[in-house]
Prior knowledge:
The structure is a single chain. The chain is α/β, with parallel strands linked by helices and about 280 residues long. The chain has helices spanning about 40-45, 70-75, 90-95, 105-115, 130-140, 160-170, 185-190, 210-215, 255-265, 265-275, and strands spanning about 1-10, 15-25, 30-35, 55-60, 65, 75-80, 145-150, 180-185, 195-200, 205-210, 220, 230-235, 240-245. The chain has a domain at about 1-75 and about 145-205: 3-Layer(aba) Sandwich (Rossmann fold). Helix 4 runs antiparallel to helix 5 (about 130-140). The radius of gyration is 20 Å and the shape is globular. The two termini are about 30 Å apart. Mean pLDDT is about 90; it is low at about 275-285.
Amino acid sequence: MITINNLYFKYTGNWLFNNLRLEIKTGNIYGLLGKNGAGKTTLLKIITGQLFPKEGNCKIYDIDSRKRLPDILSKIYFLPEDFHLPDLTPIKYSKVFSPFYPNFSSEDFKKHLSDFEIESGKSLSSMSYGQKKKFLIAFGASTNCEIILLDEPTNGLDIPSKTQFRRLISSIVNNERLIMISTHQVRDMEQLIDPIIIIDNGKIILNESIESITSKISMVLSPEDISAPDIIYKEKVPGGYAIVYEKPGPTLNIDIEILFNTVLANKEKLKSIFNGSSYEIGAKK
């Protein structure tokens, strides 16, 4: 559905993306992980046509995202981390903006507002940041767009709202829909995101499904520090040490935060383990 080929991008100075190649398919909830400044938000803005690559292209349904065709944009819902909402009630907002999304469901919208405990008659401008975020998540899910891109969606949400967010996202994913969640809050996304894309300094250093990851590495909690030839990473955690081995895992459960730290600490090793040539980045002079 989304194909990025030989893409180069920079703001000023050094290139952020160098010969970036990536294919994103429907039927998945992708987790886009990375440190601050790694390029996550930039990538989402290139996909939505808000930023243009210097070279290469990003295509959605084989159409270059730079064209920003209404027919393509009507299939995409993007929730940015930073946003501004007008002085409208949720219902008035939906009447103004839902026509841009042909598959918008007013019935779904009312249900999602109720689930998130958002007052439909209250002005958006008077709501807290967390309430505004929940409103935008509810509206986005109600668009029934085929592509849903969420940048730090759980920032500002309380614990019950995070639970409701995960429940909502799990309920709307299907074989015709692609959801991508860019986040630092990996604990909020465990058991939800799959595959996992890790980006570092504009380079994709991991792009694998949970099944693929657990077929190559495993994690255990050890009460004490240990050493073994097949250990590729270990970290002191409450209760002992998180140990990562280069061998298959017994289940599909994996600590995404430990995985993230493992990949950043062992980029070349993990690339060799997962044969990362399909998303390796070149260097532009």
